[in-house]
Amino acid sequence: QVQLVESGGGLVQAGGSLRLSCASSGRTFYAMGWFRQAPGKEREIAAAISWSGADTDYADSVKGRFTISRDNAKNSMYLEMNSLKPEDTAVYYCAASSRTTYVRRAIPDYDYWGQGTQVTVSS
Q1: How far apart are CA 56 and CA 15, in angstroms?
Q2: Which end of the chain has the lower number of beta carbons within 10 A, N or C?
Q3: What pLDDT is stored for residue 35 in this prediction?
Q4: Rounded to whole angstroms, how far apart are CA atoms 76 and 19?
Q5: Distance of alpha carbon 123 from alpha carbon 120, whole angstroms
């Protein structure tokens, strides 16, 4: 059974940090990414990473604060989030592609999704 399971979300004060994890199982995934969706807004890319981990891409709003990484030996991906702001509040989703090894920003490029983990940043 193919699964992507996120963990690490929670409530944090502005300026704080959280580390999200995504554990995958069931098949080999290539490009992966973290997306987020705030209430009343569309789902958007936060960060993406290539199969090798050598290439990464970030939304402008998180550049310099978030770091995406992966450990293929552990079938895991991570998102280190620092200097969190109230506007980072959203459900964060792990996404994975079975089709491409290159870093990708667009939702249609991903064919597997986790259930999401809530991140709430209080002011």
Answers
A1: 24
A2: N
A3: 98
A4: 13
A5: 10
Alpha-carbon distance of 103 to 98, in angstroms, equals 12
Token readout for 11 is: 């409530």
Q: Residues 9-18: pLDDT tens digits?
A: 999 999 999 9
In DSSP notation, the chain reads: --EEEEE--EEEETT--EEEEEEEESS---SEEEEEE-TTS--EEEEEE-SSSS-EEE-TTTTTTEEEEEEGGGTEEEEEE-S--GGG-EEEEEEE-SS--S----GGG--EE---EEEEEE-
Report the length, in residues, of the chain.
Answer: 123
What's the pLDDT tens digit per position in 23-35? Answer: 999 888 899 999 9
Q: What is the pLDDT of residue 28?
A: 82
